[in-house]
């Protein structure tokens, strides 16, 4: 049944989707002190791939991206943004052209696969504990992998992941992060560790705390119930209204 669906998907792609354009989404999460990316393990190859796909002829690009992320994560409400267009010559759907299904396709379908593709890169920020990873019809697994330990991937997906991480790092100077990556309640130390993982560098504790509290986007809650009361750190949550205001107007943090 799955094999039939794959063949039908490839055979009808040239009739349904825009020619020469694809989508790749870098879905980022945070757990165990590491930034992780959601990747798909392809069925016929020892290769991994970013969640992605094509854009229907009657579909908005953002809508196509939202559908891809929702299908892979199960999340309806999420933060995603376009960050780069990848268009080097020679990048195309070569792994599909070489698959066992390609030989069964019509000439029109093969020609569609053989064309040059540029891909629109999006990144999404999600909480890993809220995600149930789902493989697509071309994949046998879907899993979170550390961005600094990427396996072999198809096409230029290594470059796409690295470009997305670089983009997020640069954006830290203008926009807050954490609402889409951390649990609802967290300590300042946990928020600092997230920033350190994204930047791949240590930050001064006192300086970080002064800067993050000055943004006025955190609500202080009760103390963490560990250790002595005088030593236990406070828990915080984000003020969502103020957080969204900072995203819209920028912060100048780093």
Automatic annotation (TrEMBL):
Domain of life where this protein originates: Bacteria
Leader peptide range in chain numbering: none
UniProt cross-references to InterPro entries, sorted A to Z: NUDIX_hydrolase-like_dom_sf, NUDIX_hydrolase_dom, WH-like_DNA-bd_sf, WH_DNA-bd_sf, WHD_NrtR
Pfam families: NUDIX, WHD_NrtR
Record domain Nudix hydrolase: where: 20-168
UniProt protein name: NUDIX domain-containing protein
Originating organism: Agaribacillus aureus
């Amino acid at each position: 049944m799955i094999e039939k669906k794959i063949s039908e998907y490839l055979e009808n792609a040239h009739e349904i989707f825009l020619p020469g354009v694809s989508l790749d989404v870098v879905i980022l999460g945070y757990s165990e002190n590491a930034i992780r990316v959601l990747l798909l393990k392809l069925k016929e190859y020892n290769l991994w791939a970013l969640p992605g796909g094509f854009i229907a002829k009657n579909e908005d690009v953002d809508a196509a991206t939202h559908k891809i992320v929702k299908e892979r994560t199960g999340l309806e409400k999420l933060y995603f943004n376009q960050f780069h267009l990848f268009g080097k010559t020679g990048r195309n759907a070569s792994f599909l052209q070489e698959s066992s299904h390609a030989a069964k396709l019509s000439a029109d379908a093969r020609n569609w696969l053989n064309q040059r593709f540029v891909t629109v890169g999006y990144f999404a920020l999600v909480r890993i504990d809220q995600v149930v990873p789902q493989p697509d019809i071309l994949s046998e697994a879907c899993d979170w992998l550390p961005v600094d330990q990427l396996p072999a991937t198809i096409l230029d997906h290594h470059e796409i992941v690295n470009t997305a991480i670089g983009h997020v790092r640069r954006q830290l100077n203008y926009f807050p992060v954490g609402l889409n990556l951390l649990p609802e309640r967290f300590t300042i130390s946990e928020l600092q560790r997230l920033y350190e993982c994204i930047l791949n560098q240590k930050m001064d504790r006192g300086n970080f705390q002064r800067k993050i509290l000055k943004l006025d986007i955190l609500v202080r809650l009760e103390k963490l119930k560990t250790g002595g009361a005088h030593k236990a750190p406070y828990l915080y949550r984000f003020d969502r209204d103020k957080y969204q205001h900072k995203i819209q107007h920028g912060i100048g943090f780093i």
